[in-house]
Amino acid sequence: MSKEQTRALATTNEAAYERARRVIPGGVNSPVRAYRSVGGAPRFLVSARGAYVTDVEGREYVDLVASWGPAILGHAHPEVVQAVQDAASRGLSFGATTPAETELAELVVARLGGGTEVGGLVDEVRLVSTGTEATMTAIRLARGFTGRSLLIKFAGHYHGHSDGLLAEAGSGVATLALPASAGVPEPIAAQTLVLPYNDLDAVRTAFEAHPGEIAAVIVEAAAANMGVVAPLPGFNRGLTELAHEFGALVILDEVLTGFRVSAKGYWGIDTAPFRTEAKPGGWRTFSQETYLPDLVTFGKVIGGGMPLAALGGRREVMEYLAPVGPVYQAGTLSGNPLSVAAGLATLRLADEAVYDRLYHVSETLQREVSTALAAEGVAHTIQRAGNLFSVLFAETPAVNYAQVQAQEAFRFGPFFHAMLEQGVALPPSVFEAWFVTAAHDEAAVERIVDALPAAAKAAAA
Ligand code: PLP
């Protein structure tokens, strides 16, 4: 154990929380880490490896947060850590361009670019440091490209914490039950039209009400910040057709889904020629037509656990960015060498076997969670999109934010704490997806499964 870990362990979690609250608002540096909706003190962690995290009291948990998505290979994968250490030994940050940034951009283009029968989604990539920056830049770029101002977003979708995107947002905004954030000036909020998800009629109505004014529609490729709510079949395609009909761009936000739900992201699933989906009473297969959004944003997995995100799109739009075009965007630490090394190593390791494992673990847990809740008579639906899933405490699947909010959310707190007590760390909100990793081996899965009956009993109470 390192000196830092030994020092950290010389405290209790409560003491660590007390101390943090004196100097950090709420004791956390991101509200989703607080246990506001489930109650109690957030666990203070000191290390993470594979499928496990360890807190300041030396307790180990099977982790289903995975750093909120990035850790598809599990925590501290030795080859990723080695890549970061090698990069660090050559210098932490140069403020100049490095060949590795080109390699990462090439890798993204190779996964999502031209050469497919549908053409390329991504010709060029700009690296930034956070998902918030990626979506913020994509929106500015769409506005610069179209010369229009208004933006459509969907209720319950989260795209980071920039001013215009916090209205009826998911993630921590949903967890804290905020309709919007204070501190966003009204004229800025008025530039965003918030519509119900999965409702193409509402989108058409908005375009008709604001002719020539809407620059872009931003949409999570599959919503996963109000719990998981997949787009209805054809929704993303219909949205793209409508936006293009009215001269607006589509920004597909794959910050959470990108490189996690498939080698490409949710777009890869959504545009596969055929898709088979579970349906009450059986399965159905339907053919799909493809669609091409104009810009796509990435984060989380692309940085392998380090601060890195990106936006990409077709050349014509991307070359509106400075220094080629008139839309300004910059960053002292953009394309940071350590982050790029972690991202490159992670994407290179993320092969078919990794995605197979993510799906296997996810599907096993979905089945076991459902069995445990059913055994206690708890009304629930497993909401899924690719290998992302969450539990909705309602009998009927939800397709939008209003339906998600109508669930028996009070059941999640006791469920969460019963899991935690048995050594399983879930995301501390019913409005978040559960994140599996390829490092969740059979032993880790078994520990989760063993904890479920008691948690289901707590949820039923
Ligand atoms: N977009 C989506 C879909 C996200 O899930 C998130 C974060 O959870 C963001 C954007 C913002 O990313 P970041 O937290 O890196 O700023």
UniProtKB/TrEMBL annotation:
Its cofactor is pyridoxal 5'-phosphate. The modification N6-(pyridoxal phosphate)lysine is found at residue 300. InterPro entries: 4pyrrol_synth_GluAld_NH2Trfase (IPR004639), Aminotrans_3 (IPR005814), PyrdxlP-dep_Trfase (IPR015424), PyrdxlP-dep_Trfase_major (IPR015421), PyrdxlP-dep_Trfase_small (IPR015422). Pathway: Porphyrin-containing compound metabolism; protoporphyrin-IX biosynthesis; 5-aminolevulinate from L-glutamyl-tRNA(Glu): step 2/2. Homodimer. Belongs to the class-III pyridoxal-phosphate-dependent aminotransferase family. HemL subfamily. This is Glutamate-1-semialdehyde 2,1-aminomutase. It comes from Gryllotalpicola koreensis.
